[in-house]
Structure formats: structure tokens, C-alpha cells
Amino acid sequence: MKKLGSSRAYREESGEFLCDGIKLLEDAINSGAEITAVLTASHISFPVALDTRVYHADQMLIDYISPLTNAQDTLFACKLPPKGNDGYSEFQTLSSELSTQILLDGMQDPGNVGAIIRTANAFGISCVILTNGCADPYNPKAIRASMGAIFRQRIHSMSLSELTELKRGGVRFIGAALREGCRSILDVGLGGAIVAIGSEGRGLSEELLALCDEKITIPIAPECESLNAAIAAAIIIWQAR
Fold it and tell me: Which of 19, 51, 79 is the last residue of a domain?
């Protein structure tokens, strides 16, 4: 469990990820996630699958294992969602849907990634796409920030070459940017497009900007430099809705 919380490579190798909190455990069960093991210092008051390993432990051990500050009294491991044999073909089907999709480009703060997944799930975004070294959505900090949406939101990791193929297939790309020539978000229809949001530090990569049919900006006070990436994403998702 400690290794699941600290190593992305180990999560991918083992096909599991670590979550914390009794409320999140209940949410995972209700969402149909496959729980492999539970470690708790408290009483579980709701049904858990009979084949789930449940261990009781002292809070000091849970604090030691958890990578998070202020660990809660329950940790549990979940199976990562299965990857299809042809996830790219599945995404081509997704790209034909009329709903907006959100693309995160090089966003390395797991808290922002988790918060955006939470917002996307709240407003019916069909898919959150991750590219260019985004933070792992199954990082414990991202999971905590997603508030359970990680069990319900469709997420795809895609390479620039795969995104380029989607562009060639007629998918519309819109990029959120802070530069001259950007149109106000109020003046651009976002329906049916992939809307790309970059990291706070460097924004969208030049390669991603080159794919964009339109570049948009959120009007803010002139003395303000920028918005937090998760806040910008929430405004874009709300406007698309």
C-alpha cells in the first residue's frame, strides 16, 4: 500500500491505486470499483464484498503508510480501470459525440488534475484527455481532489500523434491561451470540441497550439496575470455547458 501511494510506475505495474477515507470507500463501492484490500482503524458500517480483504490496524500504521498529510482512518486499494485492446478506436467513437471534451496538456499538479476531473464529472463532460506528461490521475492527491469522481469519469491518456490523427479526422480543437489574437470565451461556441488547457507555468505547448482551430481567453481584470488552471477549467466547462 505504501508503494502504491508513492510510485506511479508501481501503480501501473500492479494495476492498482491507493485511496483514503471511509466516505471515499463507500463511494468506490457504490460506483462499482473493484476493491482489493482495506486497512482501517475504524468500523465500516456499510456492506463490503465478501472477497475483499479487510484488515484492522492502529492509526499510527495508517499514518505511516499514507502519503497524504492528515491521513484519514481508512486506506484501500482499487483496481485500475481496464484498458481496452484498442483504446484509440474507442476514443475515435468518443470524438464523434456532441459533448465537449477537456484536454489537459502538461498539467503536473495532481490537485489541479483531480479538481478538474471532479468538475468535468459534475457537468457531464464525456472525457478528460491527458497528454504531455500530465500528473497521474491516480496519484493519491489527485484522487482526494476528485472527491470520488475518479470512479465515474472517463479518462484517456493520448499522445500528440494520436491527437493529430483526430484533428485529421475532423475533430475541432480549441485552446485556452493568454496571447494576442485569442477570442473571448463568450464569443466562441465550445460544443462538440476538444478544449485544451495547459499548465499554469507554461500554458499550452506550441505543438498543441498548432492543432487548435480557435484560441480562446477568459476575460479577467487587466491587473491579474492569470487564473489557477482548475478554476480556468471550471469556467470553460460551465461555459460549454
Answer: 79
Are 114 and 199 members of one domain?
A: yes
Domain that holds residue 178: 87-240
Per-residue pLDDT of the chain (241 residues; tens, 9 = 90+): 999 999 999 999 999 999 999 999 999 999 999 999 999 999 999 999 988 999 999 999 999 999 988 889 999 999 998 874 334 445 555 555 557 899 999 999 999 999 999 999 999 998 999 998 899 999 999 999 999 999 999 999 999 999 999 999 899 999 998 777 789 998 998 888 999 999 877 889 999 999 999 999 999 898 888 889 999 999 999 998 8
Q: Are residues 151 and 191 in the same domain?
A: yes
Q: What's the rounded Cα separation, in Å, for the pair 88 and 219?
A: 35
Residue listed under C-alpha cell 459534475: 122
Give the C-alpha separation, 144 to 110, whole Å.
10
Q: Are residues 109 and 178 in the same domain?
A: yes
For the chain, how many structural domains are there in total?
Answer: 2
Q: In this structure, what CATH number is given to the domain that contains residue 152?
A: 3.40.1280.10
Closest residue by Cα to residue 197 from 164, 175, 220, 166: 175
Q: How far apart are CA 18 and CA 33, in angstroms?
A: 12
The rounded Cα 108 to chain-centroid distance in angstroms is: 11
Work out whether strand 74-79 and strand 16-20 pair parallel, antiparallel, or are unpaired. Answer: antiparallel
